[in-house]
Amino acid sequence: MLTRKQITLIDQKGISTLHDFRVVSLVSGEPNFEDGILSYYDGRLVTICGFPLRGEPPIDANRLREVSRFWSVRRSAEGIDYVGPHYVDFRFLRASKFRCVERFKGNYLATELVIDCNGGSEELFKLRLYKRSRSRGFQATVKRGGILSAEHFRLIETFYGQREVTNYLAEMAFVLPALLSSRRLWFIEARKGGRLCGFLTLHACFRDLGVALFLYHDEQTPGVSDFLYSEMLNHAHHCDIAVINIGPSLTRGHYNFKLKWGGKPALPPYYLIRWLRGRLSRRYHTSWGPRIVGL
Question: 4-106+270-292 and 113-265: same fold?
């Protein structure tokens, strides 16, 4: 568990989406921070973050191996998930009956992008998009997270129904009601004719850096994503959020949309390396929520 001093340090220097422990812990378990390395443990699977805090030196591969050795030997973890900026050799885990079940080297889509909310060369372009979105008859509402309405539940279900349920989407489905009820989140909604056609959530989780967590829309209203992004930047600017982490991207179109709004790489593309043993190695969904219901 994190100490008050560790929480303060992460709040001041966090940059990666994996540093956002108030959100990640809902999916990946109890947060721990030792020797500059943030990890999460759900009782069976440990997730190790290889991205250092802002201003800190790169995390050495030997330190990451020591952390994985601690969890696999001292805590008897059944799974090791490493997510970081470079490859780490965990082959020593074979001696403890682990096997590597996944190794993914991210391309440009796996780069976490950030937007400078204080303006810059993109400002006039953003303003034009904003005015164009407003001209389409959208109305914005901005409020703290709270009890979800039936409109939100329906929109989320529509969004899920039009996509293949990936590991990430399955994990999120288990925590969305609790997460979106958090007063730490800002809801930025787009309505047209009084109907909710999209919403975006912004987590002001670090000192001057926020994380854009989700954007849901009805898939049929043109311009709603542009409108939500423009409202998000406007709100962030007035809340003294200097930078927004808009995360990695699922598709090239998704990536290009973020570039259009001034997104710039903040972290290298991530590597994902997964080592499992025992019954956990036979599972497709290994994270806590999907795992406990047998997906």
Answer: yes
Q: Has domain 113-265 been given CATH number 3.40.50.11540?
A: no
Entry pTM: 0.91
User: Going by DSSP bridges, is the β-strand pair 79-84/45-49 parallel, antiparallel, or unpaired?
Assistant: parallel
List pLDDT tens digits, range 39-65.
999 999 999 999 999 999 999 999 999
Query: Domain spanning 4-106+270-292: which CATH class is it, in words?
Result: alpha beta
User: If you average pLDDT over residues 109-124, what whole number do you get?
Assistant: 78
**What is the residue extent of each domain of the chain?**
4-106+270-292, 113-265
* Contacts of 139 by beta carbon, 8 Å cutoff, 6+ apart: 190, 191, 192
